[in-house]
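User: Just a sanity check before I run the rest of the batch. Below are the structure tokens for the first item. I only need the designed sequence back.
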């Protein structure tokens, strides 16, 4: 019996176009000004130190911005980059410039599964803060009450089984009772290796079919 559902965001609950065409450009355009205004902020300073630690050298402000832009261009899932993007997106959501986009079937079924007593969790490469923002400021209102907890790259790489084992330990359920929904085959492979049940979302996103996993076109077709 499935007791919990672990959800990816990009390409699963939310159109990839919203992330790549709205969120990413929004953060990139504002990153330089944000760093200038918040370099000494107690929430930002440790993130900047993380960037220096990853690169292995102290960086000037211009070098830091260039490194962040490079990671953005490569679509790298680097934790300090995701943290800074989340801070900028918070400003956008709170000002009303951003509103989280969701597939209608995702909204309907998140509510339905919650009402059925399923425990819902999110696992995304975006920071936990960014996840909470998109769910808290969605086109359908605040969806956070339906979500039990959130996980990001701090718990591990989404394409490595160890991350999913850590999630199972955190939520205190065996993998046989947890269904993971994602559009990415490598993520599904890692989750299955950790013992989770899996299902691939094949929306109109160009996702590569992972034939070893059950496949659906939307949440309405997911059997829980």
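Assistant: Here's the designed sequence for the first item:
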């Amino acid at each position: 019996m499935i007791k919990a559902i672990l959800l990816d965001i990009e390409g699963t609950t939310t159109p990839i176009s919203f992330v790549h065409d709205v969120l990413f450009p929004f953060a990139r355009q504002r990153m330089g000004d944000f760093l200038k205004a918040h370099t000494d902020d107690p929430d930002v300073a440790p993130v900047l130190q993380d960037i220096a630690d990853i690169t292995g050298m102290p960086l000037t402000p211009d070098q830091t911005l260039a490194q962040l832009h490079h990671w953005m261009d490569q679509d790298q899932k680097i934790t300090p980059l995701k943290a800074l993007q989340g801070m900028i997106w918070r400003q956008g959501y709170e000002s009303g410039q951003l509103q989280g986009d969701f597939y209608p079937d995702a909204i309907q079924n998140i509510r339905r599964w919650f009402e059925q007593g399923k425990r819902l969790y999110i696992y995304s490469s975006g920071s936990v803060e960014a996840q909470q923002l998109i769910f808290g400021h969605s086109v359908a209102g605040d969806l956070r009450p339906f979500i039990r907890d959130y996980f990001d790259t701090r718990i591990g790489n989404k394409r490595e089984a160890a991350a999913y084992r850590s999630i199972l330990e955190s939520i205190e359920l065996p993998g046989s009772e947890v269904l993971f929904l994602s559009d990415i085959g490598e993520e599904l492979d890692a989750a299955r290796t950790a013992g989770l049940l899996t299902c691939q979302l094949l929306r109109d996103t160009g996702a590569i079919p992972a034939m070893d996993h059950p496949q659906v076109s939307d949440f309405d077709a997911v059997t829980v």
